[in-house]
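Support reply, case 0932

Customer input (verbatim):
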Amino acid sequence: QVQLVESGGGLVQAGGSLRLSCAASGRTFSTYAMGWFRQAPGKEREFVAAISWSGGKTYYADSLKGRFTISRDNAKNTVYLQMNSLKPEDTAVYYCAADPSGYGWGYPYDYWGQGTQVTVSS
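Our regenerated output:
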């Protein structure tokens, strides 16, 4: 089992950047794919980005390609989400999640963090 703790959220002006981090406990982090999801008020949770266990494959929501970048450091048991050119519509609670299959796409995410709030002001 793995426990996930997100950090790095906050208030930023439109056009600004934030980097979210997700620290994982446990020795199996390097075998898990990791993903980021977000949920805005009154909306369903949506997929943001994912990265395979090795970092060799990444996946993005089409609407976010070019602005968001997912990466991971297996030595630090941490996955990151770099968010640039932020827009007010990016305001949401951002969650990281772990996929034990290692692929990051097509398999369920079994472990979830508590989320970190990102607010983008106009």
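We compared this against your earlier run and they match. Two observations from our side: The first strand starts at residue 4 and ends at 7. The chain is about 0% helix and 50% strand. Please reopen the case if you see a mismatch on your end.
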